[in-house]
Design a protein that fits this description.
With 109 residues, the protein is an all-alpha fold. The chain has one domain. 91% of the residues lie in helices and 0% in strands. The chain contains 3 helices and no strands. Keywords: Coiled coil.
């Protein structure tokens, strides 16, 4: 045998010895380790989902706030345009409308 073969045989024998010295794991300990790992993954998934839900809730609140602001801005523009129309009516015409309204109200009574 050459030096290389001796080293190879020595290595194989050493590894066989290590494998024999190592106690065999029972399947239940493997199963427990797998369940523990799955529990950690599940916990991380729950944390991640709660963060996602929190982000979604925040996004929904922002959208609602923006749509509310848009509604208020549209209402304000509508009121501004109404005011502008009322301001553009000549005072004489406005007085005539008031007179007609007063006349119509007096006829009712």
């Amino acid at each position: 045998m050459g030096r290389r073969e001796e080293m190879r045989e020595s290595f194989i024998e050493r590894k066989k010895g290590e494998l024999q010295d190592k106690p065999s794991e029972d399947p239940s300990s493997r199963q427990m380790a797998a369940q523990e790992a799955a529990g950690k993954c599940s916990g991380l998934r729950v944390i991640w989902l709660s963060k996602v839900r929190c982000s979604v809730d925040r996004a929904v609140a922002l959208v609602n706030e923006l749509s509310s602001k848009q509604h208020l801005e549209e209402r304000l523009k509508d009121l501004d345009s109404r005011c502008a129309r009322l301001e553009s009516v000549p005072v004489a015409q406005n007085d005539a409308v008031h007179a007609q309204t007063d006349e119509a109200l007096s006829c009712r009574s």
